[in-house]
Amino acid sequence: MATQIFVNLPVKDLNKSIEFFTSLGYSFNPQFTNEQAASLIISDNIFFMLLTEPFFKSFIKKDMADATKVAETINCISLDSREAVDEMINKAVAAGATTPNEKQDHGWMYGWGFQDLDGHLWEFVYMDASAAPGQM
């Protein structure tokens, strides 16, 4: 079995979050979705578990970050083209997201991001590794 990643994110309104990510073209695994959590499918091996805040808190002993005030992470996902990056961000903004930063164009790498309904930061990038200036 291939290694998979499950990123857990707290959300204030699970139904609004499901609606938001569905409008971006994503789907959810119904086997791992209920009134407390939804399994957002990014790819065959990448999933985001959107957890209601009370359910998220049940897994931690620390304070939960308020992503509208502090950055806890930037979730970066690659796409197949610059146009796909722009399309994704434009869909997100139409669905209620904001764009905290301008597009970044480094020639071989192009990215743009949004802040979702709960303040989580998402970055989408297209990279042409064959044009990269050197090892990172």
Automatic annotation (TrEMBL):
Keywords associated with the record: Lyase
Checking Pfam families in the record gives: Ble-like_N (PF22677)
GO molecular function list: lyase activity
Query: Which segments constitute the VOC domain?
Result: 3-127
Answer yes or no on keyword Lyase.
Answer: yes
Q: Which InterPro entries match?
A: Glyas_Bleomycin-R_OHBP_Dase, Glyoxy/Ble-like_N, VOC_core
This protein is called what?
Answer: Lactoylglutathione lyase
Q: Which organism is it from?
A: Mucilaginibacter pocheonensis
